[in-house]
Every structure is written in structure tokens, then in C-alpha cells.
Amino acid sequence: MSVQRKRIGIMGGSYNPVHAGHMIVASYIAQWGVLGEVWLTLSPQNPFKRNLNLADDAHRLEMLRIAVGSLPFLRVCDVELSMPRPSYTVDTLARLSEMYPDCDFRLIVGADNWESFGKWRSPDEIVSRHGLIVYPRPGYSTDGCEDTPGVTCVEAPQVELSSTFIRDAIAAGRDMNFFLPPGVYQYIIENGLYGSVQ
């Protein structure tokens, strides 16, 4: 009798901070898709966003843990924090496949990343070994997605929300409680992140 391998979606990001849009997409793909779980994978440094002013890794990791809480279909993954920097997705997927040989990992990206996916390190290897799930983003196209072997488009809800918007609003003194997962805004205020004031 063969054991069915667990299907895991990897949704990487700087999560600076994690916000409601991230959680809606991850939750939708985990619960309405073909995956058992979605792992929110914290990126210490995005090769395409070198000048991004990141909160330190420990704060971003803790905010992810608060956001995910005890949800059985989501998990926080910190594997990239122990990898050489900058980290590349193809290497992360290879490391996870070694660590969890009973799991099949699929990469989850937004349509914004789909448009530039050909510029990533080893995009063909990512698709052929792991597969790609693309979700819509306002203002970006998924053209060619359905016609590409190994790539699946999902109709996840589109949320026009960005971490930059959240950071700027917090720095301007706005209450962003409803834009963030429960507990994350309080953590930001308590730790004085993003120019917030208690």
C-alpha cells in the first residue's frame, strides 16, 4: 500500500509586516485548493528588493507566528533564515525537499511575480520539480499561466493591500488594526516597529 505524499504550498515573502491580504490568499489556497497546507516562508532578503528597510528577522518571524496561531492548514517556515543570503527560491525548495522527503512542495506566487518569473534563478527547475500555483493580483496579468505545464492558476480573492501601505500608514499614526491579522498590530505598537508610537 502506497502512502500519499503530503502536498504543501510554499508562499514566500518578506512579510514586513504580514497583513490580511497574505492571510486571505494563503487561507483560500489551503482550504479551497488541492494542498494540505500552506507554509508562510519568511525571506531574510529578497534578491529583487535589496533596498527594502526590513524589520529584523525575529520580529517578522514572531508576527507570522501570531498571524498563523493554531490554524491547522497554515504553518510558519523559517528555513531561509539559516540559508546563505541572498536566498533563492530554487534552493529553498531543494532544502525543504531534503528535510521533508514525504512532502511534495508547490511554489505559490502572485501574478506580479508570475510576470517576472522568467528572471528568477532556475525558473524551469522550479516548475518541473515542484510546480507553481499563481494567484491573481490587481493590475497584473496571468497570461500564459494556464498554458504552461506545471503551472496552475487559482481564482483566489484579490486584495489590494501592500506591506508598504501598512508601514507608511503606521508611521503616519493611523490605526491599522483591521488591516492586519489579530494580534499583529498590537505587537507592532508594543515593539515600536515601523515608526509606531505607543
Automatic annotation (TrEMBL):
E.C. numbers: 2.7.7.18
Ranges that cross the membrane: none
Gene3D superfamilies linked: HUPs
All residue ranges annotated as the Cytidyltransferase-like domain in the record: 10-168
GO molecular function list: ATP binding; nicotinate-nucleotide adenylyltransferase activity
Pfam families named among the record's database cross-references: CTP_transf_like
GO biological process: NAD+ biosynthetic process
Domain of life: Bacteria
Entry's family note: Belongs to the NadD family.
Cited HAMAP family: NaMN_adenylyltr
Function: Catalyzes the reversible adenylation of nicotinate mononucleotide (NaMN) to nicotinic acid adenine dinucleotide (NaAD).
Designated name of the protein: Probable nicotinate-nucleotide adenylyltransferase
